[in-house]
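Most newcomers find our protein records easier to grasp once they have seen one. To make this concrete, we reproduce a full record directly below:

===
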Amino acid sequence: MHRALALAAQAIGLTDPNPRVGCVILAADGSELGAGHTQPAGQAHAEIMALRDAAARGHDVRGATAILTLEPCSHHGRTPPCCDALIGAGIARVVVAVEDPNPLVAGQGLARLRAAGIAVELADAAAAETSRELNIGFFSRMRRGRPFVRLKSAISLDGRTALPDGRSQWITGEAARIDGHAWRKRAGAVLTGIGTVLADDPRLDVRLVPTARQPLRLILDPRGRLPASARILQAPGEARVIGPGRAHLPALLDDLGAQGINELHVEAGPVLSGAFLDAGLVDELLIYQAPVLIGDGLPLASLGALAALADARHWRLVDAVPVGDDLRLRLRPA
């Protein structure tokens, strides 16, 4: 299963809107016959890639075990059902990390395998959790109809994200910026506001780590102030402007979910970040804290005033990881 999960991770930045899935086919003695991960939407899923790999190696997979990080699909989408391919190949046993949350699958793939006489097992809780985390946006879209929202910010020790005029390049070091691009790569879309564009003229593409595709870049610009020369509009990748009357955040998330966006990466100034936080729409904070003091400057978010400290919103620490000279914090609502 560790090998299959590692293969699934290789599909980050490749498969959206489909989930990231890995598959390993094992012989009775535990040796690997074939392996693969899901390809871009409309192309082969992990099971098909593993079966092709086994065939290319000259292996017979009849009676073999397939290790999968997600339940095989049972419906006709852009490709035929993967459970039928496993049945047709003569696979005898399937081990799955977690069931597919897609209502079109949701246990039906496993049922089809069992009906065909294939032994089906679910892996341990750790494997299930790892697979869900790899596909946290897909699970969010299937269950809630909207993407998983990750709000990223770089801050100083005194909690500043920019100088008073909005300039923020750069608070953190190069290692943190590279790591930030790796997280940006996960997203189906990156969202920012017109204030950030006017202050920093960012590109908000993925360029510091290899990627097969660029996330869609979204600019919230309700008053039409975006300059035609803005770097965010330039290739590579697509950019869209969200103009007047389209800035209602919950409706925007529903619309992005309908478009197949699994993870939304928000990199914005304090006003837009505060709006997401005040509305309770942030699923994860991704904070890079630099060992610097800025003094007067902009905060992470402009939030509404509290009547009492007891009303403060609490967050649960997921992890704290040194990245170069900076510290990366991931937090989720408690």
User: Anything to note?
Assistant: The chain has a mean pLDDT of 94.
